[in-house]
Specification:
By secondary structure, this protein is mostly helical. It has one domain. The chain has helices at about 1-20, 25-45, 50-75, 80-105, 115-140, 145-170, 175-180. α4 packs antiparallel against α5 and α5 (about 115-140) runs antiparallel to α6.
């Protein structure tokens, strides 16, 4: 929920203000990439059970933060941050797929699709896998009008899809998921 609020505030307030006062239309997105990665990784870290993998997440996150801050400070300030965004996509996809793998291997995950966490992770996988390549190509092609319209279309479609699946995830009641788990398998 916090992620959705911050995403909305970034689009409505942070980006226009930073663009107006700094003259940099991408500074807000660069900052949001770091915040987005942090919030999603914090969520995934909290639902993954494997302690070794949790330590790997912390190490990879530290490397991501160093890389993102270096990119923020060292690169052209008025360009799309496709490198940190691409790395963020890959890491979030990796963590998400590990969560699903971990759930499938667990014997108590008979009704995995009836849990909120499952649908949140599915929304993340769909969004980040669907937008990965347009984020990668954005650094060199963002100023091309045809690419900009394609970028907007693809990003909007996957954003809407992600938000619909997240809404569905929040509608699932935990009591229903627990009740389904207690049904014995014959």
């Amino acid at each position: 929920m916090l992620y959705l609020v911050i995403s909305l505030l970034t689009d409505l307030i942070l980006n226009p203000l930073l663009s107006y006062y700094s003259g940099n239309q991408f500074l807000g997105y660069r900052i949001f990439t770091i915040i987005e990665y942090s919030l999603i990784t914090l969520f995934l870290h909290s639902i993954i059970k494997n302690e070794k993998f949790k330590k790997a997440i912390l190490f990879l996150s530290l490397a991501f933060f160093i890389f993102s801050i270096y990119d923020l400070v060292g690169s052209r300030s008025n360009s799309f941050d496709s490198s940190p965004t691409g790395v963020s996509c890959i890491l979030i996809l990796f963590y998400s797929l590990f969560f699903l793998f971990e759930q499938i291997r667990t014997p108590d995950s008979l009704f995995l699709y009836s849990t909120t966490n499952f649908w949140i992770v599915v929304a993340l996988i769909i969004f980040f896998s669907g937008t990965f390549f347009i984020f990668i190509f954005s650094q060199s092609n963002y100023n091309v009008p045809e690419f900009k319209s394609t970028f907007t279309l693809i990003n909007s479609i996957f954003n809407i899809l992600k938000n619909l699946i997240l809404a569905m995830a929040f509608v699932i009641k935990p009591e229903q998921a627990k009740a389904r788990k207690s049904i014995p398998v014959l």
